[in-house]
Amino acid sequence: MCFSQDHLKDLFSNKLVAANACRGKSNAKSNLTMTKGKLWGGRFEDDTDDSVEQFTASEHFDRRLAKFDIAGSVAHARMLGAQGILSEKETKAIVEGLTTIGKEIDEQRFPWSASLEDVHMNIESRLTELIGDAGKKLHTARSRNDQVATDMRLFVRDAIDELQARITVLQLALVEIAATHADTIMPGFTHLQPAQPVTCGHHLLAWVEMLERDWQRLTSCRERTNVLPLGAAALAGTSFGIDQQMTADELGFKTVMRNSLDAVSDRDFVIEFTAALAIMATHFSRIAEDLVLWSSERFGFVDLGDAFCTGSSIMPQKKNPDVAELLRGKTGRMIGHLVALLVLMKGQPLAYNRDNQEDKEPLFDSVDTALASVDVLTKMMGQMVFDKDKMYDAAAKGYTTATDLADYLVRKGVPFRDAHDAVGRSVAAADASGLALTDLSLDTLQKFSEKIDADVFQVLTLEGSVAARDHPGGTAPNRVRSAVAEARTRLAQR
Q1: Is 200 part of a structural domain of the chain?
Q2: What's the average model confidence in pLDDT over 437-453?
Q3: 462 half-sphere exposure, CB direction, 13 A CA radius
Q4: Fewest CB within 10 A of the end CB: N or C in the chain?
């Protein structure tokens, strides 16, 4: 049986209406939406199916770009006016109209419409309602392709600035806690096994350094983001005599993108930014994991404060580190967004493709999650109370000064590998007797190396161990204080 194209369309439409009726959705309304109101509808004869309307609409989430879209449009209009493409009167009307729209959006009075698809067409349509034909001229010498690329760069740039400010606040909080605990001794771990004694301040400053690299990555990302794509139009540029540098200057962009195809089609700056956030979230997760362990009964190093813990619905005694656990969990979410964006971009030919509509929700959620994470982590830092005694006692277990004994023997002229072997045998002997290294007698220690003298016991103390790491980046208390001072100066200069 052979059907014409029109017959097939009618057949499918009738079946769809029937299906909707079976689901209780039947009414007098057609499932087709007219294209006459579309800003792009002139070429089309067939109406848009309402399922397509719903499937392609993005205004419910990309309205978040509104203030950046307006800023870009104001700069574009002024540039068009300066170039004589718009009259002075038209330029003034457009700028005033866009300002009015901005107020409507801020005051939640703006008449958003899903049928207008996206933030750009909603704003342009409203502008035309307010000022008439002049509003229809705003889109001269641009496309939604370079428009949205500009909006996204403005959004990312703004998000970076906000995140960097908040990261700095978190770092400052950690630095001050580190200063308080510059000589508080705790165990340092490798493989989650006691390894060597360190100071609590030194451990906290490690977190500061992790966050410092996050801050620097955002700085680097911002530099590559801060390039203007507007002027690329759909993909090939524009035939109008525009001044892109003027637009760039007004919007605070450092320069203009060198290739129009690249300008509208790539979202690597979004991917890079989201990657930086995923790495930062990984650092949050590692900090959170430390806190989960330290606050457990088995460690008992820190009390996170009641305000940042929750209880159990069945076990009345529980105080759970839920906030720290959620920080770990949200890291997976942010890594997932990065993967989504990489997959989104990987198969796209040049130039712009509608796939890129899907770049916004992962980006927006990554930013929101990152901001919430850094804020809650900063507040949680202010509630932490460390148990110095438990930390000290834990550091004294697990033969954490064994490396100091090996270093002692090396300074006595013993090759390191021989020293390592001698200390290993002394640890085995102590472990078999249920003793600490410091509990072994001098005679016993000398059985493992004749180079050991009475001064060895000064080396085996926790205080002596941390004090001996007196070099840049070391855990000695005076080095921690120096690092605190340096960090305070560096962070204050931002």
Answers
A1: yes
A2: 94
A3: 25
A4: N
CB 61 within 8 A of CB 151: no
The boundaries of the domain holding residue 108 are: 61-140
Domain co-membership, 429 together with 374: no
What distances in angstroms separate CA 137 from CA 128, 200, 237, 411, one per listed residue?
A: 9, 63, 17, 81
Length of the chain: 494
User: How many Cβ atoms from other residues are within 10 Å of residue 450's Cβ?
Assistant: 10
Per-chain mean pLDDT for the chain:
92
Pairing of strands 302-303, 385-386: antiparallel
DSSP string covering 421-445: HHHHHHHHHHHHHT--GGGS-HHHH
Calculate the CA 346 to chain-centre distance: 21
Residue 399 corresponds to which amino acid? Y
Count CA atoms within 13 Å of residue 380 on its CB side: 24
**Model confidence over 43-83: pLDDT tens digits?**
777 676 777 777 777 888 899 999 999 999 999 999 999 99
DSSP H helices in 252-401: 260-265, 268-294, 322-346, 360-381, 388-395
Is 57 exposed, middle or buried, given 0-12, 13-18 or 19+ CB atoms closer than 10 A? middle
Pairing state of beta strands 185-190 and 193-199? antiparallel
Does residue 388 lie in a domain region? yes
> Which are the contacts of 486, defined by CB distance < 8 A and separation ≥ 6?
none
Q: Do 336 and 411 have their domain in common?
A: no
Residues 89 and 225 in one domain: no
Summarize pLDDT for 111-169 with one digit per residue, the tens: 999 989 899 999 999 999 999 999 999 999 999 999 999 999 999 999 999 999 999 99
Q: What's the domain count of the chain?
A: 3
Tokens 């979004």, located at residue:
270
Active site residues: 191, 312
83 occurs within a structural domain: yes
Cut 0.85: pTM above it: yes
